[in-house]
Amino acid sequence: MSMGHCPEQRPGFEVTKDWNGADQVAIRSPRGASVRVSLQGGQVVSWRNDRGEELLFTSSKAIFKPLKAVRGGIPVCFPQFGNCGTLEQHGFARNKTWIVDDEAPPLSNGDNNNKASVDLLLKPSDDDLKCWPHCFELRLRVSLSMDGDLSLISRVRNVNGKPFSFSFAYHTYLSVSDISEVRIEGLETLDYLDNLSQRERFTEQGDAITFESEVDRVYVGSPGVIAVLDHEKKRTFIIRKEGLPDIVVWNPWEKKSKTMSDFGDDEYKQMLCVNAAAVERAITLKPGEEWTGKLELSAVPSTNCSDHLDHPGRL
Ligand code: BG6
């Protein structure tokens, strides 16, 4: 796939308008997998496999308003994760209008080949600079491989005269058949900060993680690959990441779901957020420095997933 052309001129790409009239770029693989990303928030709003099955959750109650992240898909949290800071919850990037970046600098490590990609860019507005006075360029490359794997590569560049620090997350709403049939492998024995107990630190036990109540945790220093197994669907999501040491796991469960106006009362059963993130320790960039954070998602039949888990270094 040739790079460096406007998306609408490339085969397999389509630019449409989203619910608010913002541009949305769809990429389709030759085998039929697809991803759609909205310039509103730089948010991936759909990822489908080659059978056309949607792999990301979006709430049936999602609110489609300008400059408001939609409840679902993959909002980008930057420059703040959660409410630990002076900014709005999860930072402002998810609520801004991004642009397509036809002149994105190449990636340094061979990530430029064999994938259909679109590059997006967010720069701070005057209003953003008032609440977060740091000049940055945030780039997001969204790519789809021939096999339908989705990869997101973010780059944050400090174009400021002074250092700044930020946290970051790909707030990934996975679609699952039934949360009680889901488990996460790869986070066993790790320490986590529990957002339900004022971020107190605990250590996970040796078993895979399963769900029977509200969960809102930051697993720190997690491995580069973890797996989310959906027993009922016989589907496994393989999550590979680089530059993002933490994994946030969130399911609001019954009581909290009822307090969220853009989320159905029972929808907690069909979703699980597993977010590759840099939360525990902020990332600091000196003037001119750039940080890169990568996420790669694959959805494979559960019988094939051990191959992926055996090769954690593949990203
Ligand atoms: C999670 C946080 O990642 O996002 C939760 O850990 C939060 O604490 C959730 O409730 C949803 O956040 P928001 O701002 O999209 O409603």
Automatic annotation (TrEMBL):
EC number: 5.1.3.15
Family: Belongs to the glucose-6-phosphate 1-epimerase family.
One of the GO biological process terms: carbohydrate metabolic process
Listed name of the protein: glucose-6-phosphate 1-epimerase
Binding site for substrate: 71, 89, 94
InterPro entries for this protein: Aldose_1/G6P_1-epimerase (IPR008183), G6P_1-epimerase (IPR025532), Gal_mutarotase_sf_dom (IPR011013), GH-type_carb-bd (IPR014718)
Keyword annotations: Isomerase
Superkingdom of source: Eukaryota
Lineage start: Eukaryota, Viridiplantae, Streptophyta, Embryophyta, Tracheophyta
Enzyme class, spelled out: isomerase
Catalyzed chemical reaction(s): alpha-D-glucose 6-phosphate = beta-D-glucose 6-phosphate
Source species: Eragrostis curvula (weeping love grass)
MF annotations from Gene Ontology: carbohydrate binding; glucose-6-phosphate 1-epimerase activity
Record Pfam families: Aldose_epim
Keyword Glycoprotein: no
Cellular component, GO annotation: cytoplasm
